[in-house]
Amino acid sequence: QLEPGKDLDIEMSPALRRSLNLVTLAAVFWSVWFYIANGAALTRYCQLMDLSKFGYGLLAALPFLSSLIQLPVSYLIERYGRQKPLFIVSGLLHRAAWILVAIVPWVFPKSLWSSGLLLFFFVSALLANVSTPVWFSWMSDLVPAGIRGRYFGLRGQIAMAVGLVITLGVGYGLDVAGAFGPDVLLRTISIGLGCAGVIGTCDYLCFLNVNAPSARKPNPDVKMADMFLQPLKDRNFLRFLGFTATLTFGIVFMGQYLWLYLFDVVKVSNTRANCLLVLFPLAITMVSTRLWGKIIDRFGRKPVLRICGLMVIGGSIGWVFVTEQSIWQGYLLVAIATFAWPGIDISNFNIVLGMSESLGGRKYGMGYIAIFSAVVAVSGFLSGIFGGGVAEMIGDWTGPCL
Known about the structure:
By secondary structure, the chain is an all-alpha fold. It has 17 helices and no strands. The chain has helices spanning about 5-10, 15-35, 40-50, 55-65, 70-80, 85-100, 105, 115-140, 150-180, 180-205, 225-230, 235-250, 255-265, 270-300, 300-320, 330-355, 365-395. Helix 2 (about 15-35) packs parallel to helix 9. The relative contact order is 0.17.
């Protein structure tokens, strides 16, 4: 069994420790970008741009559609290598694209606001997915297998602590700006998104001094058909894909519509919405993330997936009972699911890292990442289109209050 602390001292050289610290610092900048550029700010921005009900489903689907680019990118990495420059350049452009998202109201006519928003959002997501295969393979090379659960659990905790502060500040800032009218609110969000893009680039700059990926060498003889077909012969991998596809389809479309539900039906403020969908979940996740990481390192990923999977089932149902008159009763089920979610997230991440390793004679490790990403892309895209179609179909219909 692993002994916490002892394993770290044995396995980490000074160079590795420095690299892991930089990867953790990068998570701080990621957190600042993410919690400004998402949540209440993005939803309010979309509302001010008159995004249609179907548009919110499309907004949820586009990042998954863009992740299909990971298929050719994975092949190019397997064949030519050069992972680090690709990761940093594509990542910097991905975050800089948020500056373009921020200036849409000032360079596009009002009739094209929503189209411009979706266009630059898609470009940003596309560039982000160019760097994703590199991220998985790089982390599988960099982080020793015996400490991954604990390391990514601690890294996640630090990012969440930053997210708590950012979330409170964003919610309060939106409420103050909103009191002066929609024009002031639009300018405030635009400035915030632009700042998020600039700060987010620092995330990728941290990787300039991180140890370069070393386990995967260029393979000029790799065949695309072999690379993508071999993972599909792995029955365990196929079972994992089925689990991931089902889970992704079931939750992706909910994200944007939960924000609209809180704003339009439950009638909460920006600050309270951020608390319900970001702040409280972050606080709960901070407690549970490192706990699940330690459990995964000790007992394995599959037992944690089973336990956490049972715990998250009631999370979606809980939102049915969150109304303007009664919020907290239903939110209890949401809190239980939130507590369990990091266990699923870290377990899945570690499974994918393990599949991408070039160990034990396995070839075409990038093929596993590519197929996994493609399945997530298709199921996530279909989920967003499904949610958008249903929302457009029912229009402004509301059921009886519970």
